[in-house]
Amino acid sequence: MKKNIFRQFILFIFFLLISGCIVQFIPEIKEEQELLVVEGLLTDQLTTNTIKLSKSLPLGQKSAARPVNGCIVKISDNLGNIYTLKEKVAGTYITDSTIFKGIIGRFYTLKISTNSGNNTFNYESYPMEMKKVPPIDSIYYEKSVVKEDVAGWYGVDACQIYLDTHDPENSCKFYRWDYSETWVHRLLFPVPNMICWISENSENINIKSTAAFDEVRINRYPVNYITNYTDRLKWEYSILVNQYSLNEDEYIYWEKVQNFTKQVGGLYDIIPASIPGNILSINNPNEKVLGYFSVSAKSSRRIFIEDNFAGIIDRYTKCVTDTIYGDYDPPELNVSLWTLIDHPASFYPRTRVLTDNFGCYDCTTRGTNIKPDFWKDYK
Question: For 120-130, what is each residue's pLDDT tens digit?
Answer without folding.
Answer: 999 999 999 99
